[in-house]
Structure formats: structure tokens, C-alpha cells
Amino acid sequence: MIKITDDMKERIGKALREKKTCVWASSSKNGAPDLSFRGSTYVWDDEHLAFWDRSRGLSTENIEENPQVCMIYFDSTDRVGWRFYGRATIFKEGEMRRKIMERTIKDELDKDPERKGYGVLIRVDKIRRYSGDEIFQER
Fold first, then answer.
1. What is the residue range of 93's domain?
2. Which sign does the torsion angle of CA 93, 96, 99, 105 carry?
3. Structural domains counted in the chain
């Protein structure tokens, strides 16, 4: 069972403001990897993460080809972090895109003034600690 904790919600929600990182990994259908910083990452609900994809670049193409993604959050000061594994869905239009955009932090939306980005919702299937192989939660 997956239940994103209150500590995770709080830390991820203020990651950009506190200069912590949320780094997303994706790969093409052929397995070519890519990493991207997503300052707009936040916890959607107890089982999902979300972000605003304003780049619409390689990682977007990767997710379209292979929706399996991984995100690492790490706070080097407190030595706290997690790896989140799941399946991403891109919303290029419609109600869900609008809802994701509405909950995205202003600093990230300001970098996309014409709101050309996409909403991305990730169903979390596994959470591991930032270090080691210990599985914290799994579906």
C-alpha cells in the first residue's frame, strides 16, 4: 500500500523554496535515460505526485514512450530523502491539466507565462529511502 507521509508532503511541497531538489528520471522506449529538475513537483494526494512540464522536451517524449519514471528528493542538510517510482500520465489539455496547473507553485508557472506546459500526474508504486535498498512502501 502507498501512503505518502505528511513529512514527505511538506518537504516536497517546499523543496524549490528551500533549495532542495526533485530530480526526475525517465527513459525512452529503447532505454536511453534522461534526468530533469522539476521545481514544480508536489504531492497530489496520498498516492500521487504531480508536476508542471513547461519544457515539453526530451523527458516529455520519454514519458510518452515509456511512462515508468523515478523521482529522488534529497535534503542534504537534514540527510532526508526518498526515491519514488511510478507511472506518469501527461495531460496536454482538459480538466486534469487545468487542475494540475492550478496547484502548481507560482514561481514555476511564472516561467511559463503563456501556459503552454502540460500537467503530469504520477501514480506512485514504490517508495525507497534515498540511500540503500530498503523499500519504505510498495503497492
1. 6-138
2. negative
3. 1
